[in-house]
Amino acid sequence: MHRNYKMYRIKKLDIYIIKQFLMLFAGTFFISLFVLMMQFLWRYVDDLIGKGLSMEVLAQFFWYMSLMLVPQALPLAILLASLITMGNIGENSELTAIKAAGISLMQTLRPLIFFTGLITIGSFYFQNDIGPKATKNLAQLLNSMKQKSPELEIPEGIFYDGIPQCNLYVQKKDLETGMLYGVMIYRMSGSFEDAAIILADSGKLQSTADKQHLLLTLYSGEWFENMRRQDFSGNSGTGVPYRRESFISKRIVLDFDSGFNLTDASAFTNNAQAKSLKQISVAIDSMNHVCDSIGICNRKYMESISTPYAYSREISKTDSLAAAKQGQLSTYSFDTIVSRLKPTDKRDALQHALGRVQMITSELYYRQESTSNGDHMIRRHKLEAINKFTLSLTCMIFFFIGAPLGAIIRKGGLGVPVIISVLVFIVFYILDNTGFRMARLGAWPIWFGKGLAPAVLIPLASFVTYKANKDSMVFNMDAYRNAFMRLLGLRLKRNVASKEVIINDPDYSQDAKRLSIISHQVRAYAYGHHLMRMPNVINVFFRYQPDHEIERISAELEEIIEDLSNTRDRFIMSYLNQYPIVSLKAHTRPFERKWMNITAAFILPVGIFLYLRMWRFRLRLLTDLRKIRLTNEKIVERISKMDTI
Description:
Order of helices and strands: HHHHHEEEEEEHHHHHHHHHHHHH
Number of helices: 18
Low-confidence stretches: 1-9, 230-240, 309-315
Largest sheet: 6 strands, antiparallel
Strand content: 5-15%
Strand order of the largest sheet: 1-2-3-4-5-6
Radius of gyration: 43 Å
Distance between the termini: 68 Å
Helix content: 55-70%
């Protein structure tokens, strides 16, 4: 019965944690997706504004964009949701109660691990099946939106270039009647010879019924247009260079397609993001085959141009036969032949050789561009194939970062969790984006570029998970500060605070006797070990004798300080904070192990540094022992006054 009851409680706990996580995951997912969509939209906002797009087209754009960004929003949502979930449970002391019931952290996270695993699998399926189709449709739709003619909204006082082959300037316009005043048009239908300038006092612009053209009606104006040379006959010097036309009313039909037409989807066949793993594999095989064929052609071309080429119609037959003999081409001196040429022939030969080299260089550069493009496309496809796995794996990595951190921090809400999530995601984004760009350029191997972010985050996830499972204080800043100060040899300040509730008063007489004895011991140690002198190098690195006297004295002194910290006397409490925190081993030898000391002795820079550091700690120990003696005298004197009172 007890076993069944325990299983029932764990099941209820799993359901409770899953409910907490799902509610937060739904909210954080849509927030993350919205942020990513706004970032994506900001990149193309200039191409979409003012196009007069219908709500149906915009709805399709946002739908495909959201589908494409779902795999990127999932890791961030999992990170934030797991942080807040475990932070809320820890902040409400529910995690403490769970651990008190004998349930470990990993057992508590078991339902969330299972759910995150399902999300990881779903993310991979999404990227392999749904994401490529959404990416292809979004690219097609975005390209069509870019090519759509802008909505006809002519501003006042500036040139408007939204109409093809026209620059339209309007000094003033009437919004009620649609009339335009002070119209100036620069029209370029073909080349510069066809340029026309049209000036009019007023005009009106209307769209045709099929929305394929614009009808521009102008009133009281002039038309200046360059004339083509073939439009008139006779001598060009006596012909009319341009024509000028004055008109009272004139109608001009302008091409302006304001409709929305989808572009051909075949233009996006080389987009690696619009392909599944199977399609990527087929595309890589095809591109490798094409690149191999190009490589074979380039090799044959290099072999053909690597054959010796002789130029000069003046070279004698004897020299030509001698230069063409087998086995003598590498040793035959062509400079001797060139030196026999006439200056003009020598110049022609050098110019011909230079032209041939430039032609071959241009050809090789062109062939290099073709092979570089093929290699670039292959790398893009391989990167996209690996990205489908790494981005899915990031969901699990972020969970094992967020959930343990939430259990350690034990802070819920949107404060600390959001800050930590943003920092972790920024680190991931920088590493992943840097690796992607370097691998795409070919500077890094593909596996290294895409594996950089997981290689950094997986050890971090393992570390915080281990610390959370062992209830370690990862964010104890005092512990890190003290360790850093000890590493650099900096002093730590003692902080003995008075207690509000004192159960047992200190044994003043016994503590005074012990302090007097410690004063004699520290004085004897200081004079017996000659702390003022430089330590013996042989004894330090090769013949170290164990010395635990300072450790014993320090341990006894700490016991006395702990006992006297129960005092109500403010003088004694002040004296206790004057005791230095003694370094116990730094004045005896550099390392605990003998072989490490011997190794350090033969590494001159390291050995000299450690030797000087040890001497410094000996001098500091002498100062600390003197301060201990003085403080002991003050406390003993204060205790004696308390006894007389």
